[in-house]
Amino acid sequence: MTTHHDTIIIGAGHNGLVAAAYLAKQGKKVLVLERRAIVGGSVVTESFGDNFSVDSLHTGGTLRPDIIKDLKLASHGLQPFGSAQGKPDSAPQPFITLLADGSPLTLDAESIKRISEKDAARFPEFARFMDKAASILDTAYATIMPRLPMNFGIREGYGLLELGLELKLAGRKDMLNFIRALPMTAQELVEEYFESEIIKAAICAVAIHGSTLGPMGAGTGYTLIHNWLNRGGLAHKNIGKAGEITTALANAVKAFGGEIRTEAEVERIQVDRYTCNGVILKGGEEILADKVISAADPKHTLLKLVGAQDLPPEFVWHTQSIKMRGSVAKVHLQTNGEHGIPAGTVVLAPSIKYLEKAYDATKYGEISEKPYLEVTTSGNTVSIHFQFAPYALRNSDWKVESGKVAELAIKTLEEYFSALHASRITHHIITPQDFESIYGLTEGDPNHGQLMLDQFLFMRPIPGWSNHKTPIDNLYLCGSGVHGGGGVSGAAGRNAVKALK
Ligand SMILES: Cc1cc2nc3c(=O)[nH]c(=O)nc-3n(C[C@H](O)[C@H](O)[C@H](O)COP(=O)(O)OP(=O)(O)OC[C@H]3O[C@@H](n4cnc5c(N)ncnc54)[C@H](O)[C@@H]3O)c2cc1C
User: Fold this and answer.
1) Cα(231)–Cα(60) distance, rounded to whole angstroms?
2) Domain hosting residue 365, numbered range
3) Candidates 15, 35, 42: which one to mutate for ligand 1, based on the most atoms within 8 Å of Cβ?
4) Cα(373)–Cα(264) distance, rounded to whole angstroms?
5) Position 97 pLDDT exceeds 70
6) CA 443 to CA 327: how far, in whole Å?
7) Res 145 pLDDT > 90
8) Is the pLDDT at 84 greater than 70, yes or no?
9) pLDDT, greater one: 140 or 148
10) What CATH number is associated with residue 76?
11) Which of 116, 148, 211, 418 has the fewest Cβ atoms within 10 Å of its own Cβ atom?
């Protein structure tokens, strides 16, 4: 049987759900198709056994406050961060680095005095600049980029005017420092503020989180600002509650009249003479729609679901060239709660050289023997973000090596937290190959395409196609691989709806 909708959204990650909710709110007949049995994509809280529930991939998160408001997500259980039932949230969100003796050091102006009076005095100015830089980037992400070098319309020009105004309002010094910071290395940026290696390295860890780059790599100034924006600082927010975001979004889609089908994998996007008219699901069901918006990554959408035969050759070449390069693995430990790890975001990043060497392993297709770890806890569970673990291993494969990641992560962490060993009950590993096969992330890339300066602004996902459109009429992109993504902001999903003709 063939059915017809105004819009089909492929993928129920947070961006697909944001786009669906806005369209359903406008009264459109919307259908979201998700290949997994659950919604959420990378923003999901899953259970791997009794009392073993975790944010499987992305730790916690927040959406943009105006999206929470527009979509009435408070009525579905999601408050903007910093408010609980309208009152300020007093819960501290510490960002902690581990000193050589294993003791934790929180990165705030007061605690840093233990290490360096000078760094403590510079910390507020650093945080002020980062907040300002993040707010400029936020405005850029909320702006639909023009299709340079093509002509662009009034709507896109208006967005750019707003962005120009935001830059001007930032003041000459912050504007210049923002533009200057983007191509810098994270190392260069932090060295302008701090003298202590442990402080500099902890901040650099946030710059490389989720990216296949070391802190000495150009453009990690940009990724530091990006991650600062998406976290609202150095520490994650709402740890252990990632799933609440996408559950609230799914409830909003349904409350506005939209439909969500899980276990509904799109196998093909139907194209006839450069025009899209629907999709075909695995199993053969055909669903027609006036418009199709894909929240799956651009490589998967364009090369697998459409196919090179229906796209212009140069566009295919550009899409094939999108750098994906996932190199993150996750290890979740179920414990009896006596692990001894403090609450908050804990990083193991002893020095900038340590981080750079951890990254070096990816160049040779190897797993870092001395990894950069970021650890968060929620109840009895301990979640370890492991870098670097390249998607493509040169001399082995992930079926053989997954145990090695768990072993290295646990061994490294136990050197700092001796109680962890006795508290462990079981663990669950998610390799970069699992990112692809279970969570649908091509080449295990967390951001649907690396966050790099040549895949940024009007070059994301590819040069000339930054306004959510594709060479196929009625086919649009709204996931993290387009401008506004990655992170858990919802910007890409909302921008795509604005960009619809
Ligand atoms: C471990 C990890 C750490 C991260 N850390 C950070 C960070 O520190 N900073 C940052 O900015 N970002 C980070 N991210 C990235 C961020 O989480 C993502 O960019 C964001 O969540 C992606 O949301 P999305 O809705 O665009 O796509 P996804 O959440 O990937 O959702 C896409 C959905 O599409 C579905 N799908 C795919 N193909 C099909 C198909 N053919 N048919 C039907 N459904 C399909 C998938 O199953 C999935 O549910 C991290 C991600 C991971 C995995």
Assistant:
1) 9
2) 328-440
3) 42
4) 35
5) yes
6) 9
7) no
8) no
9) 140
10) 3.50.50.60
11) 418
Statement to judge: residues 220 and 310 lie in one domain: no
CB 264 within 8 A of CB 39: no
Cβ-contact 76, 248 below 8 angstroms: yes
Q: Are 418 and 385 part of one and the same domain?
A: yes
Q: What percent of the chain has pLDDT over 90?
A: 87
346 forms beta bridges with 96, 375
Dist. CA 220–CA 216, nearest whole Å? 8
When the pLDDT of each residue in the chain is averaged and rounded to a whole number, the result is: 94
- Does ligand 1 have an atom closer than 6 angstroms to the CB of 332? no
| Average pLDDT for 332-353 | 97
In this structure, which amino acid lies at residue 91?
A
Residue 308 CB partners (closer than 8 Å, separation 6+): 316
**97 within a domain of the structure (yes/no):** no
- Please state whether the peptide bond connecting residue 461 to the residue before it is cis, i.e. omega within 30 degrees of 0: yes
Query: What's the pLDDT score for residue 152?
Result: 64
Q: Write the CB contacts of 284 (distance below 8 Å, at least 6 apart in sequence).
A: none
pLDDT band at residue 91, thresholds of 50, 70 and 90?
low
In the reported structure, the alpha carbon of residue 90 is separated from the centroid of ligand 1 by a whole-number distance in angstroms of 30
In a domain, 88, yes or no: no
State the distance from the centre of ligand 1 to the C-alpha of 42, rounded, in angstroms. 4
**Ligand 1 neighbour 13 (Cβ under 6 A):** yes
- CA of 329 relative to ligand 1 center, distance in Å: 14
Strands (E), 128-249: none
Position 133, amino acid:
A
Cβ of 486 below 6 Å from ligand 1: yes
- Which three-class secondary structure state does DSSP give residue 197? helix
Any ligand 1 atom below 6 A from CB of 58: yes
Question: pTM for this structure?
Answer: 0.96
Q: How does DSSP assign 361-416, residue by residue?
A: HHHTT---SS-EEEEEEETTEEEEEEE---SS-SSS-HHHHHHHHHHHHHHHHHTT
